[in-house]
Amino acid sequence: MRPYFTVHMLVVNALLIPLCHGNPDLTSTNVCSSIQGPPGVPGNNGLHGRDGRDGREGPKGEKGDIGSPGQRGVQGPPGKMGPVGPQGKPGLLGTKGQKGEDGRAATPCDMGRVAALEAGLSTLQNNFNKLEKVLQLLQVKKVGQKHYATDGRVMNFESARKKCQTIGGLLAMPKTEEENKVIQDFVSFYQNPAFLGISDVKKEGSFEYITKGSITYTKWSQGEPNDYKGKEDCVEMVSSGSWNDKNCGEERLVVCQFEI
């Protein structure tokens, strides 16, 4: 019976409630209130409405307190070296050391040994200086006790002679076939004739070494020396290894010799 009653009451309410609201006489007789049934079961919540628009940004707040320091980062690479600082003041003078024992007097034998050592060191130093200058040149070849060297430069006879002398040598003076062949190798490599330390400047037709003395070995080309136009007082070596008298003012390959 309850479901039927409930339905019935819902129908009656649907008909009378609008009538009661529009008629004040009925409300005064409590007719409307007497016919209202018990409250119904609450309905389900409706769906949420759409989100509203974001409001405008508010004013900037006050500056907050300083936060606690973070962890220390990894050390970066070292920077460039700075300028040298000013020189410091001299330190304090140290204490004086104890006096050493008196040495024995040198004997004549000791003096001789010292002199011999000094002479040996002097010779060694001179040889070292010569060798150091030789190594400044690009190519070095050895024959017996002689070293022949060149850096490929060309000069006139007098300049070539002085250059070799400056570095402790002499302009090449071949006195054997083997020595002549070494100089020929330089001439062939650089494709340039080389001046020899030989000339007849002092006496025409009488060739001698720049260290004085008549030449003891020759390798003249056929028809040479011919003193062409009376102006050929120096000697050059060509690629074949043969010699030819030449004008001293022309430029030729510089080959120096050293006895080390």
Structure keywords:
disordered N terminus; single chain; four-stranded antiparallel beta sheet; 14% strand; alpha+beta; Mannose-Binding Protein A, Chain A; 6 helices; 260 residues
Mean pLDDT: 80
Count of helix runs:
6
Return residue spans where pLDDT drops below 50 for at least 5 consecutive residues.
Answer: 1-8, 15-35
Name the strands of the widest sheet in spatial order.
Answer: 1-2-10-4
Structural class: alpha+beta
For the record, give the distance between the C-alpha atoms at the N and C termini, rounded to a whole number.
144 Å
Tell me the CATH architecture of the domain at 132-259.
Answer: Roll
Range of strand content? 5-15%
Query: Which geometry do the CA atoms define?
Result: elongated
How many distinct beta strands? Answer: 10
Order of helices and strands: HHHHEEEHEHEEEEEE
**Approximate helicity band:** 25-40%
What characterizes the major β-sheet? 4 strands, antiparallel
CATH topology of the domain at 132-259: Mannose-Binding Protein A, Chain A
Radius of gyration: 60 Å
CATH C-level label of the domain at 132-259: Alpha Beta
CATH superfamily annotation of the domain at 132-259: Mannose-Binding Protein A, subunit A
Keywords: Calcium, Coiled coil, Collagen, Disulfide bond, Immunity, Innate immunity, Lectin, Secreted, Signal
Subcellular location: Secreted
Signal peptide: 1-22
Coiled coil: 114-141
